[in-house]
Amino acid sequence: MEAGVDLLEVQKFLGHHSILTTARHTHLTDQTRHHALDRINGLMDGFSISWGQVK
Q: What is the DSSP string of 1-55?
């Protein structure tokens, strides 16, 4: 996943019937977690919220 492989593809490769099984065994490194936070913050910076209205 850290190389960009989709979780559903990992599920198929491992032969799990449930995506929850795959997710339970998947752990991200601190570097991946930090990169994800940077991307999420970048997306959120594009929003402006004013008294319940998203702009």
A: -TTS--HHHHHHHHT-S-HHHHHHT----HHHHHHHHHHHHHHHTT--EETTEE-
